[in-house]
Amino acid sequence: MHAQYHTALIRKALEADFTETALGEVIAANLGQDALRYQLGNKPHFHCDNNKIAESLAYVEEEHAVIAAVAATIAAEADGAQMRAALGHLFHTVQDFYAHSNYVDLWLESQRGRPRPPAEEIDGLVPGLLGHPGLRTGTFVMWRDLIYYVPLLGKLARRIYVSPESHEAMNLDGPERGWKFWYAYAAAYQRTCAEYQRAVATVRTAGGEAALQAFWGQA
Questions:
Q1: How many domains does the chain have?
Q2: CB 18 within 8 A of CB 199
Q3: What's the CA gap between 71 and 69, in Å, rounded?
Q4: Is the dihedral of CA 122, 127, 133, 136 positive or negative?
Q5: What is the DSSP letter of 179?
Q6: Is there a contact between 89 and 199 (Cβ–Cβ < 8 Å)?
Q7: Which helix (H) or strand (E) covers residue 26, if one does?
Q8: Which of 138, 142, 137 is nearest to 41 (CA)?
Q9: What range does the domain containing 165 cover?
């Protein structure tokens, strides 16, 4: 998902609770996962690429565990920025899940027999779809797909051939990818809110209100 949409999702979900500085830290950690060193297929689980869904979910759990561990030590003056970085990291992965997988297609197929529903009606948390045997994500293979990101050559390559299983074919990273993007965006917002509420509950349980204030940057 393009940076401006990651940013918009986080702002919409968090700005009522976080200070502007703290919110900026969450966003910076999120966007940092799109750094060049994490692109080109070397960290596919950061972006739910290459069908690394299980690995991506494990990564999300690892970042939640970081939040819990830091919250538990907040009385010892642990840095709330660590929790915010972990939150930004896991947000990136779950947001990309909807932009890089066929979840939207599976949900739309489940709505057959009715007119196309508005994008905001999508349910991004359907257990049967999150565990659907046909759920898959696009793949990025450097020798095959890097050409799509080369100016001029990329446009020509897209006209000649795009593998239907590739990231290039499947991604819903922005509105230029068509109307399904807005379903991916709405589902990603739901998941962002769900993961955030989980983090809030974890921080409160592990460290109490003091840890929660530190999490929000209000301590």
A1: 1
A2: no
A3: 5
A4: positive
A5: T
A6: no
A7: helix 20-32
A8: 142
A9: 3-216
Q: What share of the chain is helix, strand, coil (3-state, %, to 5)?
A: 70, 0, 30
Please tell me the distance from the alpha carbon of residue 65 to that of residue 93, in angstroms, as a whole number: 15
Task: Write out the DSSP string of 4-57.
Answer: HHHHHHHHHHHTTTS-HHHHHHHHHHHHHTTSGGGTTTTSGGGTT-TT-HHHHH
Alpha carbon distances (Å) from 135 to 21, 92, 129? 37, 19, 7
| Tens digits of residue pLDDT in 76-89 | 445 799 999 999 99
Report in angstroms the alpha-carbon separations of 44 from 90, 148, 181: 14, 17, 21
Distance, in Å, from the CA atom of 31 to the CA atom of 48, rounded to the nearest integer, reads 15
Place of tokens 């990309």: 96
| CA atoms within 13 Å, Cβ hemisphere of 20 | 0
For 157, residues 6+ apart whose C-beta sits below 8 A from its C-beta are 147, 148
Distance CA 33, CA 182 (A): 22
Q: Which tokens go with 213? A: 């204030």
Q: How many CB atoms lie within 10 A of CB 149?
A: 12
Question: For position 35, what pLDDT does the model report?
Answer: 78
State pLDDT tens for residues 123-170.
999 999 999 999 999 988 776 777 777 787 777 777 787 788 888 889
Looking at the whole model, is its pTM more than 0.85?
yes
pLDDT < 70 regions, the chain: 36-41, 75-78, 143
Q: Which run of H or E residues covers position 180?
A: helix 180-216
